[in-house]
Design goal:
The chain is 26% helix and 27% strand. The chain has three helices and six strands; from the N terminus they run H-E-H-H-E-E-E-E-E. It is an alpha+beta fold and 129 residues long. The longest helix has 23 residues. The strands form two sheets. Strands 1-6-5-4 form a four-stranded antiparallel beta sheet. The radius of gyration is 15 Å and the shape is globular.
């Protein structure tokens, strides 16, 4: 076992979640998140999952789950995600899982203006690269 309390690990996973949110939002909407857009990400370890610390609402929200393939092989045992996007594509939610190791929940807003004002760690595209 290793400790995941180190701030460097948290910062690295948060930066990765920001980039992954940008990529998935573009993949599913065809829209680039502007520099003024907002992205939040929160990651959960496999221990968090075992202890039920991943909000159940995240699983209900991210209902659309694409099948991922490389050649003839399905990749769901390595990486999978579910998502939900508003009709106008201004908001998106993505719940990603990496094997049974960890998960990252990502919220995306193409606009600034306080959608995530209650959250301390709002990221912006192109920041924290």
């Amino acid at each position: 076992m290793i400790s995941l309390q180190d701030q460097r690990i948290h910062d690295a996973v948060t930066a990765y979640g920001t980039k992954l949110g940008c990529a998935l939002h573009y993949l599913h909407t065809g829209r680039i998140i502007p520099a003024t857009g907002e992205i939040i990400s929160r990651w959960f370890s496999n221990l968090d999952a075992i202890e039920g610390k991943i909000p159940e609402s995240a699983f209900h929200l991210a209902r659309e789950i694409p099948e991922l393939h490389r050649g003839n092989r399905q990749l769901h045992d390595q990486f999978s995600y579910g998502f939900a996007i508003t009709d106008d594509a201004r908001l998106g939610f993505y719940l990603t899982t990496f094997r049974q190791s960890f998960a990252i929940a990502i919220g995306v807003s193409t606009e600034s203006g306080g959608l995530f004002e209650e959250i301390d760690e709002v990221q912006h595209p192109l920041h924290g690269q």
